[in-house]
Design brief:
This protein is mostly helical. Helices cover about 85% and strands about 0% of the residues. The protein contains 10 helices and no strands. The N and C termini lie far apart (about 115 Å).
Length: about 325
């Protein structure tokens, strides 16, 4: 009697397990079908994803549930089937997350690659070391994109996300270096223009033609630099520096012919200081010491020369008395 009761309870427990396991299996099948359908629809609808993940999605399938003869075998088979479904769900969830990452990152990578290719051209003469770094990064990015189909999906998504972050940092560095270079050249233009203005103010009429041509050329350079500032493009900073140096030398020569050599040296030092100091305030002794160092003129002579140049209207040091 007791044995019959035990067998009866055992059968009820087995039946309960079969019902419970079947219910869980049904829920897992539904979840697996949802994830598999989601992943396949995204991959099939995106040529880039299909190229990378087509084989991976084709290899995934949901097996039919086991239908053996005896109740005991049903329980055992259902347990094995649940384990298989658990493993499949794990793969599908990881694949779904990776597809979401790739779906978001791939367009960003394509955009970034185009921008970095542009910056590599722009920085060729602006910063050869940064140009080389950009070229190496682009070569590495191409190798990774070509090798993506052979990587595990999750690993590929992780690698691309890391490259995207590093590429954006590299782009920011290139942009900052470019803007710095153009900004320094525009400051140099301002310095040369001021020197030209002084040279014109003391030159004789028959000496003004070359200086006026220098003013025209300087305006052309400034216009070019302003356009480059708005829309970064390849250019040669050394050539611009050379042209500015030529115009500066012309202005300095005309000044030296009209004023004493010591006055010309002090005036040029003052012009450079004024162009780079952004109108900051100096104490008198600071101004004299700075120009003395830049021009190689003794302190007393520097102070006297600054007075003479200011009196002639060749420089405009503004004084604030407090």
């Amino acid at each position: 009697m007791e044995r019959a009761l035990l067998e009866q309870r055992s059968r009820r427990e087995l039946l309960d397990y079969i019902v419970s396991s079947g219910s869980r299996a049904r829920e897992k099948i539904a979840e697996a079908e949802r994830l598999l359908s989601l992943v396949k629809s995204k991959v099939e609808g995106n040529p880039r994803l299909k190229e990378l993940l087509g084989r991976a999605t084709e290899s995934l399938w949901i097996p039919d549930p086991p239908l053996p003869g005896s109740a005991e075998e049903v329980g055992r088979k259902l347990e094995e089937y649940e384990k298989h479904l658990d493993a499949l769900l794990g793969k599908l969830k990881a694949l779904s997350l990776a597809v979401e990452v790739l779906e978001r990152v791939l367009p960003e990578v394509d955009r970034l690659r185009g921008e970095l290719e542009h910056w590599a051209q722009v920085m060729k003469d602006v910063s050869p070391p940064l140009h080389s770094e950009l070229s190496r990064f682009l070569a590495r990015l191409s190798r990774v994109l070509q090798g993506l189909p052979s990587l595990e999906v999750e690993k590929g998504a992780e690698v691309l996300r890391d490259l995207l972050e590093k590429g954006e940092q590299l782009e920011a560095r290139a942009r900052a270096e470019y803007n710095k270079t153009v900004g320094l050249l525009l400051s140099e233009v301002s310095s040369v223009r001021e020197l030209l203005g002084k040279a014109l103010s003391v030159s004789y009429p028959h000496d003004r033609f070359e200086l006026e041509e220098g003013v025209k050329r300087l305006s052309e350079i400034e216009k070019q630099l302003q356009e480059l500032k708005k829309a970064p493009a390849p250019f040669s900073p050394p050539r611009v520096h050379a042209e500015l140096a030529r115009i500066r030398a012309l202005a300095s020569q005309r000044l030296s012919e009209a004023v004493k050599p010591s006055e010309a040296a002090v005036m040029e030092a003052y012009s450079r200081l004024a162009a780079g100091s952004e109108h900051r305030l100096y104490l008198l002794h600071e101004l004299v010491e700075s120009i003395s160092r830049r021009s190689g003129t003794p302190l007393e002579e520097t102070l006297t020369t600054l007075y003479e140049l200011s009196r002639k209207g060749l420089i405009k040091p503004l004084v604030k008395v407090s």
